[in-house]
Write a structure and sequence with these properties.
Number of domains: 1
Number of strands: 0
Strand content: under 5%
Structural class: mainly alpha
Number of helices: 18
Length: 439
């Protein structure tokens, strides 16, 4: 207990931690409000639609998400890294990334239309998938967020996302009040992307900055794509890994079981914003530390691993004992079978949190290609286990497959590179119980 107390005290009193706390607090506040909205409005939507219709909606979101990750092209952190290193070339990098993402979205739409022809979906479900996937066109405006992130100005990104969240929540509540059909809830997903894009444009113009979308450079485009292709493969593999279980459940067990399984995943994934939030906010700090001092660089990543382990433990233990009660409290008796699924999925929090730090380190070290093997191994294990056991044991088998594949792929990931920031840092934390003070 004393060791844990010292670890927390050492982490929060670091100068580096305090320096970026203001930036992180805006992102954290936005994500907390989003979590509350998902557990309030999202649960209300699930109760209103019922397991079957909620399953169709979840399936459409899952199917489109797999292909929408293509439109991102893995550029996000690559662009941020370049904006940190060469801020004077802001417009050329933002403009080039913007048009690459736009092209990626328009390439993705016919691909997803072709893929739906090989599914067993009815026409209505295919229409829902295509409507949601069309929102990828507006993802190109996310490059504005990259600029604010590189300048450690997450306040503006958070305000934009809060605008989207408020608009989306109000519309969903109105639709429930008006007893709207499922198709209207599908259209809200498209409105979400449009609202966020408009908010980003307004925030950028508020800063009175030049029009980045007028810029495009072929040389930089080739450089970005060369650096980002491993991240693109990773992001697609991760998205398939995270959503393929819902698609396979729909094919073998039906929409009702997808709805029940999705209720559990919504709760288990509600925490996933935490590692992304923290690592994204501290990303510029860690890059700058690497440029200044190797010991400073190692110390900051070491502390980040320590912090993730603490948060993961604080999440997993209480949810384990409260899973069934929590599901019934939130979703009602119609979703009671999701309790056992949630109990299993909760323990994926450890590889998710630690893996987020590891992925960021690979990006900084320009070793992002190593993550491909890890994520593809997790994907293969998950798909094989789902294929073998979902028809026999139902949605619990999908949860077990997700749990096993996450840990096995994480172990494989750490075995790929026995460097100073993988084995050495993680086991140093268990041995000494506190992070370095070299911040």
């Amino acid at each position: 207990m004393k060791r844990t107390h010292n670890l927390i005290k050492s982490t929060v009193t670091h100068q580096g931690f305090r320096r970026y706390f203001a930036n992180t607090s805006w992102m954290f506040a936005e994500q907390i409000l989003r979590m509350i909205a998902n557990l309030a409005v999202g649960v209300w939507v699930a109760r209103y639609l019922g397991p079957s219709q909620f399953g169709i909606l979840s399936y459409a979101v899952a199917f489109s998400a797999i292909f929408s990750s293509i439109a991102k092209l893995g550029l996000d952190n690559i662009v941020v890294r370049h904006l940190v290193h060469v801020p004077e070339q802001r417009n050329i990098y933002l403009g080039t990334a913007f048009w690459l993402k736009m092209i990626g979205a328009f390439v993705m739409l016919p691909v997803i239309a072709l893929a739906m022809q090989f599914s067993s979906n009815d026409a209505a479900t295919n229409l829902f998938v295509y409507i949601i996937a069309s929102g990828a066109i507006f993802q190109a405006f996310e490059v504005v967020g990259f600029y604010f992130q590189s300048r450690v100005l997450s306040k503006f990104v958070s305000i934009c996302k809060l605008t989207q969240l408020m608009t989306s929540s109000i519309i969903r509540i109105f639709l429930i009040y008006r007893h709207a059909d499922l198709v209207w809830f599908v259209l809200v997903s498209l409105v979400d992307q449009l609202t966020l894009a408009m908010a980003f444009v307004f925030a950028y113009r508020y800063q009175k900055l030049e029009k980045f979308y007028l810029a495009f450079d072929r040389t930089i485009a080739k450089k970005l794509l060369k650096d980002s292709w491993p991240l693109l493969v990773n992001s697609v593999a991760i998205m398939i890994y995270m959503r393929i279980d819902q698609i396979m459940i729909k094919q073998w067990l039906g929409a009702n079981e997808v709805g029940i399984y999705s209720a559990a995943t919504r709760i288990s994934e509600v925490w996933n914003f935490i590692p992304i939030l923290i690592t994204s906010s501290l990303f510029p700090s860690i890059i700058n530390a690497k440029n200044r001092s190797e010991s400073l660089y190692c110390a900051r990543v070491q502390n980040l691993y320590a912090f993730m382990l603490l948060i993961s433990t604080a999440i997993a233990l209480p949810i384990t004992f409260l899973s069934s009660w929590l599901v019934i409290l939130l979703y009602g008796d119609a979703y009671k079978d999701a309790g056992s699924v949630l109990l299993l999925l909760t323990w994926t929090v450890f590889p998710v949190f630690i893996g987020t730090v590891w992925s960021q380190w690979l990006l900084i070290e320009e070793r992002q290609y190593l993550a491909i093997y890890s994520h593809l191994s997790g994907l293969i294990i998950n798909v094989v286990l789902n294929y073998l056991f979902i028809p026999l044991f139902g949605i619990r088998a999908a949860a077990v497959a997700a749990l096993l594949s996450s840990y096995l792929s994480a172990l494989f990931a750490f075995s790929l590179y026995k460097g100073r920031l993988t084995y050495s840092l993680v086991f140093h934390l268990y041995k000494h119980g506190k992070p370095s003070r070299d911040l």
